[in-house]
Amino acid sequence: MGEAARLLAVDLGAESGRTVVGTFDGERLTLEEIKRFPNRPVEVGGTLQWDVLRLYADVLDGVRAAGQVDSMGIDTWGVDFGLLDRAGHLLGNPVHYRDRRTQGMLDEAVHRIGREEIYERTGIQFMPINTLYQLLSLVTSRDPQLEAADRLLTMPALLGYWLTGAQADEFTDATTTQCYDPRASAWAVGMLEKLDIPARIFGEVVQPGTELGAPRADLGLGAARVIATATHDTASAVAAVPFESDNAAFISSGTWSLVGIEIREPVINQKALEANLTNEGGVGGTFRLLKNVMGLWLLQECRRAWSVKGADMPYDDLLRMAEAARPFAAVIDPDDERLLRPGEMPARIAQIAAEGGWQIRPDPGVIARCIFESLALKYRQTIERLERVSGLKIGTVHVVGGGSNNRLLCQMAADACGRPVVAGPVEATAIGNLIVQAMALGLISTLEQARDVVRRSVALETYEPKSTHEWDKAVHIAQRSGA
Length: 483
Fold this sequence. Notes:
Blueprint (H helix, E strand, L loop, with lengths): L4 E8 L3 E9 L4 E10 L3 E3 L2 E3 L2 H15 L4 E5 L5 E4 L20 H9 L1 H8 L8 H10 L3 H5 L2 E4 H10 L4 E2 H4 L5 E2 L4 E2 L1 H6 L10 E2 L3 E4 L11 E4 L4 H7 L9 E5 L3 E7 L6 H5 L3 E4 L5 E7 L3 H12 L6 H10 L20 H11 L8 H27 L6 E4 L6 H11 L3 E3 L4 H13 L6 H11 L3 E3 L4 H14 L2
Parallel strand pairs: 1-6, 6-14, 9-12, 15-19, 19-20
Antiparallel strand pairs: 1-2, 2-3, 4-5, 7-8, 10-11, 13-14, 15-16, 16-18, 17-18, 20-21
Helix pairs in contact: 2-3, 2-4, 9-16, 12-14, 14-15
């Protein structure tokens, strides 16, 4: 290895993917985005599917464009998967977590075995998108793919298999499925069998930083080692949070907002169940006690709806309009299940607001402000819930990911939560992916050292809370309207 290591992150999100080279000189990490490409789902026969072969081809193009690197690792969104037959062939396109097939499946699972057993076995938040309910939909519809399946691979594991030939799910992504028992460090076989989900399809789970091997020779990708990094994008993002104390929370802000704290052992008890908190695996023996909040998907989907009607709304324009709009014209629950799937989002938001007694125009600035204020209030509610369940008194909130660039939302989060918000890094997911590779190569010894590298490598911005009394009043009004 030369003086500086060249590491490659393949970072795949629900809207786009990219390849990013990180150059690490032992002190600082510098990033260069090599190639960005869209990740567009396709609806076929009424089923929303990932175009996974197109995605894989774009990944290969992005990796080749990066040139020679010392290692590479893939991170993706969680919960989705591919099924392989015994010859290792993909049985069908992975289905998108926003597809309708999971409707009613959470209730069906609870009816069959109860919330308590599911939570006791997995410690994962109840969300209809989880792998568990996707699989149950295959069971209840007697899908022949499930009968033919020999192996389930999560999305990053599927792409890693095509790159290396190694079939291995990685711990941080496996825990998101609600099929894995974090206390037993194994798949929750007994629970799965009670739901008639075949346990035979689940295989080896490796820890973040495990080497999968070299890329297949026929791909022409050079001699880079492929590392199973923290393959769930939130796990990568949280690995890059520049925590300076143990009593800080994080918000990984993008399509979803993941609001949580880092802990050493999963918290699986009645309080955590009632709060519907999730225990996802992290790097270096950590767990993330968190809650999934709907996030900036709401604004992304509004922009798409406005664009279809001929009104393109750049983010900067929307932020200016939101800032100028009247405060607290409406507050909604951003986690209302009606907001989960694609569709006419501005009208849905206005409808949900009306049910709470708020009358708002579906005007872009008004809707955008409603989204930001509703998210900020949800952050506050979630942080208070985390404090109650963990016993931790949270001081600082770190916002990482694309949402850390949103100055209005960061200030609202500080005001609503009554705590300083430290924003950055924006590129947390790619940085986390890269620093886990650096740990695997022996260039960084511990997660604490990795976070020192992050602090030296990026600029952070702190937002101090202001006008918190206005937000205190908004909380009480929102509670009365059911938001």
